[in-house]
């Protein structure tokens, strides 16, 4: 059922009995090894669905707010941002924090979207427009 539904996030945790609660006294408890295996299966399924959801935005514009975190990646400097649908975005270049902007999503790398400001132009685009 989970495979068929359009979930983009699952909060998965393994039940643990709490002494003194009605659930802890119930018969036929799921064995710990089986509960852990079910947890693993659900987490893998969730990771695949999240990745597919994130990849669906490649080539698309998204609104995002810049955060007060900057760093470097294989593609150069970036500023972390959060999209309006709560996805982590590494926005190329340095940007002031707490600024809403439109970003074009270029890729998904290491569990985050990678993009650039939608109105920024590459060197080639700027050259074509200028000449």
What does it look like?
The chain has 131 residues and is α+β, with helices and mostly antiparallel strands. The protein is built from 2 helices and 5 strands; from the N terminus they run H-E-E-E-E-E-H. It is elongated. It starts with 31 loop residues before the first helix and ends with a helix.
Features:
131 residues, alpha+beta, 5 strands, 24% helix
Distance between the ends: 55 Å
Neighbour order of strands in the largest sheet: 1-2-3-5-4
Radius of gyration: 21 Å
Overall pLDDT score: 88
- Which regions are unreliable across 5 or more consecutive residues at pLDDT < 50? 121-127
Biggest sheet features: 5 strands, mixed, barrel
The helix-strand sequence is HEEEEEH
Helix content range: 10-25%
Question: How many β-strand stretches?
Answer: 5
Strand content: 25-35%
Work out the helix count: 2
The shape, in one word, is elongated
Which structural class do the helices and strands define?
alpha+beta
How is this structure best summarized?
With 131 residues, this protein is of the alpha+beta class. It has two helices and five strands; from the N terminus they run αβββββα. A five-stranded mixed β-barrel has the order 1-2-3-5-4.
């Amino acid at each position: 059922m989970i495979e068929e539904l359009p979930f983009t996030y699952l909060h998965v945790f393994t039940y643990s009995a709490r002494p003194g609660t009605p659930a802890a006294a119930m018969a036929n408890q799921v064995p710990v090894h089986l509960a852990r295996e079910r947890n693993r299966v659900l987490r893998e399924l969730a990771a695949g669905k999240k990745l597919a959801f994130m990849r669906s935005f490649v080539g698309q514009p998204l609104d995002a707010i810049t955060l007060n975190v900057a760093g470097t990646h294989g593609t150069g400097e970036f500023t972390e941002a959060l999209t309006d649908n709560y996805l982590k975005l590494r926005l190329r270049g340095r940007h002031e924090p707490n600024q809403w902007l439109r970003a074009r999503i270029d890729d998904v790398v290491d569990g985050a979207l990678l993009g650039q400001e939608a109105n920024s132009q590459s060197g080639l685009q700027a050259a074509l427009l200028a000449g």
